[in-house]
Design a protein that fits this description.
The protein is an alpha/beta fold and 338 residues long. The protein is built from eleven helices and twelve strands. Strands 7-8-9-6-5-4-3-2-1-10-11-12 form a twelve-stranded mixed sheet. It is globular and about 55 Å long. Bound molecules: S-adenosylmethionine and iron/sulfur cluster.
Length: 338
Amino acid sequence: MNAPFPPTAPLIDPFARPITYLRVSVTDRCDFRCTYCMAEHMQFLPKVELLTLEELERLCGAFIDLGVRKLRVTGGEPLVRRNIMSFFKVMSERLGSGLDELTLTTNGSQLARFADQLADCGVRRINVSLDTLDADKFAAITRWGRLPQVMDGIRAAKAAGIRVKINVVALKGFNEDELFPLLDWCAREGHDLTFIEVMPMGDLGGEDRLDQYWPLSDLRARLEGRFTLTDLPERTGGPARYVRIEETGQKIGFITPLTHNFCESCNRVRLTCTGELYMCLGQEDRADLRAPLRASADDGALRQTIRAAIARKPKGHDFDYSRGVSGQISRHMSHTGG
Ligand code: SAM
Ligand code: SF4
């Protein structure tokens, strides 16, 4: 048998990729029901199955000890988890002591309440998901969301000194006509902007993901019809690619998770609110971290389980729209945290 790794050796997967980025879903619950993400009557996990915030803190701490430098808190909607600010506060203590960045992805509904506290916890940049600037369309796509509340939240974040990146899911027949208005609004407000290709996640009760699929290649071509785009060399280890719009100086991101062009530099893993570690967004393989976490107050077994999981991280993912089937990945984005 091989000697166990020393506890401080960084996490490197079999394809020599250092794992430095953890996305952690702190809840599967949400105050919205976006049509591409959740069914209207979602069956959420029984609360007893969720890790406590203390358990999540310990798990994230173990990853930071193993070389994770960036932590993104997501969900479900992370800001609806009760006492979530205590989690941010604990994690913020690792900033500058292992952790370089603490951030979150949010629907913005609770930001007006929490922006100042997030800033106090060292959060400098956040992603806010916003697919439309039209209040009626917003209510339709999120089912339960209200646009003015999110706009208030975005303003509060900006006022607190937090940089906002707007994430827009590109949806055929829904926000195609808002491409330029969204671009203008972000330019005026000083927000970065990223477009996401819709992914075939979860069984959403008969709604066909393919009907909503608007390829970013088409979106990009429309931008090129009006502006000069320059590809930027910037890489984040994920599926995002960036361009600069020469006429406005804006940086625009494109996230095309269905392509394979980013797997070779993948630096991330995802932790669910029940303590399952997914090594790849597009694969079902996962490792249970809850059992070793609860088995001992010492992190030794937990660390070994994390290392064994990273040793199974696959080379790439497995989405394929060409099969013409939606929902190949049966879990929801709200479970693995997008
Ligand atoms: N509730 C938070 C939010 O909406 O930002 C965080 C969790 S949400 C699951 C994370 C991201 O996943 C959001 O930007 C959302 O738009 C995106 N998302 C959800 N379902 C998706 C799908 N089927 N395809 C592409 N992106 C999706
Ligand atoms: Fe909630 Fe985010 Fe999913 Fe919308 S995308 S339902 S806000 S978790």
